[in-house]
Hints:
alpha+beta; 20% strand
Amino acid sequence: MAKEKTVFVCSECGYEAPKWLGKCPACNQWNTFYEEKLAKQSGSKYEKKKVAVPMVLNQLEKKEISRNSTGFSELDRVLGGGLVKGSLVLLGGEPGIGKSTLILQICNTMKGEGKVLYVSR
Ligand SMILES: [Zn+2]
């Protein structure tokens, strides 16, 4: 297992510090430090590991998501256009409301898309 080292980086100017700082000594901005993990590579060099960084919403790129129809137009509408591959949907309701019947019908419709796993408790 690769050894990890942590470094704190200023999101405004890129200044790096070994511990978290409230104010950046380089650009004098407050609360701009975020934690970044460095993984030790085969040599003695540490390289930056990808860590989630908070972003401003209007700077995000829009990605097209493909959706598969469940076979039920009303359910597709509630799901925003159908099921997204790799997503998880929790279906809840009172006993006897028809959750299992609906899911089995969706499984029957979706079986052409690939493998279907139905888990019930
Ligand atoms: Zn800074």
